[in-house]
Design brief:
- 2 copies of one chain form a homodimer.
- Chain A is of the alpha/beta class.
- In chain A, 29% of the residues lie in helices and 18% in strands.
- Chain A has 9 helices and 12 strands.
- At the A-B interface, helix 3 and helix 4 of A face helix 3 and helix 4 of B.
Amino acid sequence: MHKLALKVGDHVFAQWSSAIAAHLPDYQILHWNEVDDPDSVQYACVWQPEAGRLREFGGLKAIMSLAAGTDHILIDPDLPTGVPIIRIVDNTLVDRMSEYVLTQTLWLHRGMHRFAKMQRQAKWKPSFSIPASQRHIGVMGAGRLGQPTIRRLAASGFDVSVWRAGSNDIAGVRCFHGSLQLGTFLGNCDILICMLPLTNSTHGIIDRALLEQLPTGASLINVGRGEHLIESDLLRALESGHLEAAVLDVFSGEPLPPDHAFWAHDNIVITPHIASLIDPETGARALCREIVALDAGQQSNNVICRERGY
Amino acid sequence: MHKLALKVGDHVFAQWSSAIAAHLPDYQILHWNEVDDPDSVQYACVWQPEAGRLREFGGLKAIMSLAAGTDHILIDPDLPTGVPIIRIVDNTLVDRMSEYVLTQTLWLHRGMHRFAKMQRQAKWKPSFSIPASQRHIGVMGAGRLGQPTIRRLAASGFDVSVWRAGSNDIAGVRCFHGSLQLGTFLGNCDILICMLPLTNSTHGIIDRALLEQLPTGASLINVGRGEHLIESDLLRALESGHLEAAVLDVFSGEPLPPDHAFWAHDNIVITPHIASLIDPETGARALCREIVALDAGQQSNNVICRERGY
């Protein structure tokens, strides 16, 4: 019998466990806190493993990230070397993310944040909306989740630009690369969308200096990681009126503490990290497809580069 | 010199007037309240003309409706007979309407009304969202604005059904017809969208009996006319929990009075009739194209049927 150790939230453990068992009858699925003999485990399938824990497993074939981002694994200073880290990105994850970003982009584009405020004041004040083709959307990051999102925004008629670290372009979209072109990119963003991976070079990237380069009245959507954003700089940019609104799905501390200033802010929309929750059913299917292929001696296309961070 | 009388809101009169003048150099553009010799006017281009006024114009070639709906003209009991009523539906109007409906549908689909309430309570409670393909959207009305909207919702992956008075089908969409099939249609609507014209047979159509046929937890989007909806029946359906939320862009009295119960309702989103405002620039272009064609002796495709009401 092979063994697989699973670390997911307790409220979804049973769902994940039975979904995996259905696909991998030769595997014993172990709860993360009930692993007696770590060296006998082939796969650690994890979301936010505690630092130091993964190195206890001496016989891992791979560490499987149950999220598109792998920062939750790479943050471990004692991460075992020589074991591939593989991430699971299934299509439902991609669909949900692109749908969430489109929802929030349309919402900001149509001025719904302003109408919501007017409703609280019982104020009737019609205003024209510019066409989507005149709304400049800037997406930072163009990876497995970013690219389909970019296509979807463009298909909805928005004028989409992309900024990414690497030098490769995306067909049909205006692409900016590296730190030198960041300013030009930002200067034309009515709505800035962060879909970056969290790495050493993107940590805290959305700071005062970056926000100041956006045009006055711009808005922000963050679906990357909370650590991309310097929270106090965002609050300052909203207070000054330089930024109009922000939609945040991720936070540097989750759950967001009840006394956090973001909750009651008039120009901030908060969702509890639900932009693209991985579904246990479809997630387990994608995970097990990887494991079956690895056990059959095939290479995975989803191994991340530790040095790059994604 | 030909003459055209224009009735639009005072805040947009100058824009409309100069946009029309640019396209029709042979026409004198008269403000609705400054027409000295009504019989010398060829075209009355109107939004909500006062009852009895249009019959003062003895030489009209056509009455031009500056809105997709023509209920604001047909309501006049003294409407002159024998003059064609032509409506202006330009593409920007269509784009805006389909964009607005998509925005609100996605917003409800992703449970944003629930997250907004949780934010007010500083409550962090993640939840899965079902895929768009499992969300059943029902659109009532499939006219010039409805059909492109239906296509757009379907392209976003939603499961879309349509109910319309007439018997003709729409390719690729499940169509229900007439009063006999209304119940079957309603029974499968997670989100009901009203895009009907306002006529004698659709006045007050969204009443208690209709709402009760929706599944528990359904939501409503009304972008038709306020008079389609029995407001007290909507409030009752929301109070009882049978309906979850409503997004309303149109009201039986506009502007919505400041003391109206809708404003402060937790489960109602209000926008001030902005789903598809007609843009003076593009609207004037479409209007003038019609007038030039009519003056050249061509038939218009946009003459409405008075008896049918659209």
